[in-house]
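Table S2 (continued). Query chain:
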Amino acid sequence: MDVSDKPIKAESLEMAKKRDKKVYITDIAIDKVPLIEYYGFTDEQNQIMQELARNVLVISKERNDSNEVALTCDLGKPDPLHNFGVALGTEHDVDVLSDTLSNHMIVSSESVVVILLHNHPSTQTFSLEDVQFFIQHPMLTVIVVVSNQGTVHYLKRDKDFDYGKVVVLFKECIQGLKRSSPSSEVYMATLSFLAKCSEAGLYYR
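Corresponding output:
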């Protein structure tokens, strides 16, 4: 399947065109980050996730010119709101593993609940790189993206998660893409994966 041959909705194309336009974080955006009922999480964990999502925007706004920031947190550890790794990135990229604490949590963890949150200065949902990072690091229970306008999306491994199926689906969705492919095609490949990921045991909201 070549993603460039798939029909593309006009509204999705419009989003793809806007995805490279940086949005600066405002206090209004931080305040409006919603309380999400994460699949399989307790009410207390949901409240912690909301506060972490706000924190990633606050740190981006105050310390990184509204560019990408990633927080890595282990919900299984005491006081997760005060024990998380912080990686500062550029407008279009963040190297999560560049932060020592984040690297330690992701590399050394096997079965604990490790959460990765990061903001997107432009896009409203996950990038292809986010999806690939999540697939490559099975110890990550949830990956969350918070747009600079306060919108929240997340990917979580379900009880039916099948690593083999996820890899096959990802390869199908990126078939035909090249390093030189237009950002709109890359974005549509990501949307294609997210639309089908439940077939491989991933929960997307």
